[in-house]
Structure formats: structure tokens, C-alpha cells
Amino acid sequence: MRKGPHPLPVHLGIAAANMKGIQDYASNFPASLTQSDAVQMVRGIKLYQEHPFTPKELPLESIWQDGGTSVKRPIMAQDHRVEGDGCPLLIVPSLINKANILDISEEQSMLRWFNMHGIDAYMLDWGDFSNDQENEIEMEALVQEKLSNSIQAVSKHTGKKVDVAGYCMGGVLLLASYSYAQDHIRRMVLLASPWDFKIGASSLARNVRIWSPTVLPIVKERGYLPAEWVQALFASLDPKGSAQKFIKFVSTDQRSSEAELFVSVEDWLNDGIDLPGNIAQHCIQDWFVDNKPALGQWYVAGRKVDLGDIKSDVLIIASKKDMLVPYDCALSVKNSLCSARVSVITPSCGHIGLIVGRQAKDTVWQPMLDWLKK
User: Fold this and answer.
1) Residues 189-208: tens digit of each pLDDT
2) Domain span at residue 253?
3) What confidence score (pLDDT) does residue 10 get?
4) pTM for the full model?
5) Residue 234: inside a domain
6) Is residue 219 included in any domain, yes or no?
7) 218-225 contacts: CB < 8 A, separation 24 or more?
8) Is the peptide bond preceding residue 7 cis, with omega within 30 degrees of 0?
9) pLDDT (tens digit, 9 = 90+) per residue, 206-242?
10) Residue 11: how many CB atoms within 10 A of its CB?
């Protein structure tokens, strides 16, 4: 039986806060549900926990490795892979969760879809930095060594320049790595990647700033940011959405591919990674609190991250339905890309829906493919 969704008390609290007996509290709750909905939410959580489906890992081959970090290419039947003559694509995920969201299932794998449409696609798997050798890794090593070297590895492996796509904080890290790997990069895609952390109505950025004075000292003491703390933060941003997805799951055919995808994504969400202390402190302080990227004050390894140096084509994907990285926040990087040729697409998907949603192929993957092939 699954123990998620994490943190379980938060999700059950959302339901409990709306049940009969504490309605005075529920009347002030931003995502107040009917008692029936609260009961259905708990039913949905139980159905998820007891669901018999076990997601399988799809076959991958590693073409480069540095410690726990690796670059992987999907192993596919020859009749499923369409060879193209363009540049390879390296997709860079966030650090908060595992990379397998890019390869979640045969039907909904972004990684395999691009390979089936003539793009030689690879994904960066950051791995687990909790081991003794890497738990003290800093932003400098992450950008200069891990990320930059992974781009160069794909370029060396294929003999071509590389198109790079960064998802969420993966995009922010790509921007910092550009000056170290620019000779190997052709085009760049920023997929729901934040830049100005104080623009618009970002609940995530606001809550992290409120959270930071309490969390930063504990992170420094422990040496890492626990995955469950991040998951609790995300769940608190959209209590209504957290409830509704489990309510909807109750009415889903439990034997369907839709149910299996739900289970796969929830398993991924609940299998988070503890963030190394140095990286967590850097992101919280330099990004969310001080907003250094947007102010032109962000330095990595003593070198200013100056987006004016980027002269390649850049595609920004910003969704108006993204609650984690709102449209204004994702689009804000455009102002700093003063020397680049910038294109923008604006799908209507949630943050995770951009990668695994039912509309992702038509509204995100296909426009991204068309742009890469131009």
C-alpha cells in the first residue's frame, strides 16, 4: 500500500477542515469543500494508495555519467524511432523531483515522443545528491561541471551542436550554464522556467519568502532541504486543486490508462528528492528572496549571469494556467534576452500538465517540435 500523497496529514487536513464539526474553520478556508466532497477526497486518496498498478521503468541507456548524474537516451524498437538530420535535444528537468516525469509511460513519454518524431532526444538525470560524495555540492559545480559537461557530452556523442530544453528550475540553470557551454548549444527552450521571482501574483514565491527565515537556519543545520517540506509547500498553494484531483479520481475507470497515468504521476510527485543544503540555500536566498536573476545581480562561480550574451534562438513556453510558475514569471526572462531571437508560445496547461497532460502533445510538444525543426 502506498504511503502518499505526501505529506499525508496536509491532504487529509484539507478534507478534515471541510467536514462537519469544524465548519467555523472551514468557512474561512480558501478551498472549502462540501462535506460530500471531503468524503470523496478521502475515498480518492484511498483508491490511489491501494491501486494495483505499478509503474514500470522504461529502458534507457546512459551515454555519460558524473557521480550520480547521467545523460540518458531511450532504448526503443527501431520501428518506433524516426531518425532525423537535425540537432540532438537534451531535456533538463528540475532538481526537486526525479527525471522520470519526462519518461513517465509509453503513451505519455515526452522523451520518447520526440524520438518518434525525428529528434534525437536525451534527458539529464540529476540523480540523488544525498550520498556522502555529493551532499555538499554547490551551485558552481552544478552549473559548471554537471550541466555544462552534460551538454558537451551530448555534442561529443552526436558530433553536432545541441538544442537544450530546461523545465522549471532546469531552465534557470541552463541560462547560467550558457556561458560555459555556448560553443555546443544551438537553440534553447525555457519550459515554465521562472526568472523574475517578484513579478505578478506568484503564491509560491510569496510563500517561500515567508517561509525562508524559519527554513534557512534549519537547512543549514541539517545540510539539506527535506523533500516533504517542498511537497507540503506545493500542496498548500492549491488546496482546492489538491482535493479536486482525488475527487475526480473516484469517478475514473480504475482499469483505464487514465487511472494508470494518474497513479504514475502521483508516485512521481511523492518520490521527491532532498535538495542539498548549499543548493537549497542558494535558490531560496538568491532567487526567491533577493530576486538576483531579474535584477542582473546573479553570480555563479564569480561570473555574472548576463543573458545579454545569449545570441541564439530561444523559445519561451509560458502558461496562463500554471500556478507554480505563473505566466508573467515565465515570460519575464524575455526582457533580459536582449540579443537573442525570442519566440513565445502560451499553452493552457498546469505546471505538470505541460509535460504529462492530455493536451501536452498538441499544445506543447508539437509547437516545440515545429520550432526546433524550423
Assistant:
1) 999 999 999 997 778 888 89
2) 1-50+246-271
3) 56
4) 0.90
5) no
6) no
7) 219/277, 219/280, 219/281, 219/284, 220/277, 220/281, 222/277, 223/135, 223/136, 223/276, 223/277, 224/130, 224/135, 224/274, 224/275, 224/276, 224/277, 224/280, 225/274, 225/275, 225/277, 225/280
8) yes
9) 889 998 999 999 999 999 999 988 888 888 788 888 8
10) 23
191 within 8 A of 354, measured Cβ to Cβ: yes
- Indicate whether 334 and 252 sit together in one domain: no
Decide: residue 125, CB within 10 A, 0-12 exposed, 13-18 middle, 19+ buried. buried
Domain count, the chain: 2
CA distances from 31 to 15, 16, 23, 250, 320 (A): 10, 12, 13, 19, 20
Number of helices followed by number of strands (H, E) in the chain: 17, 12
pLDDT tens, 89-146?
999 999 999 999 999 999 999 999 999 999 999 999 999 888 777 889 999 999 999 9
pLDDT tens sequence across 170-188: 999 999 999 999 999 999 9
The closest of 54, 80, 60 to 124, measured between CA atoms, is: 60
Task: Give the integer Cα–Cα distance in Å for 185 and 117.
Answer: 21
* pLDDT band with cut points at 50, 70 and 90 for residue 307: very high
For residue 99, give the C-alpha cell: 527525471
Q: Tell whether 172 and 305 lie within a shared domain.
A: yes
Rounded to an integer, what distance in angstroms lies between the CA atom of residue 116 and that of residue 104?
16
Residues 295 and 254 in one domain: no
Find residue 344's DSSP bridge partners: 316
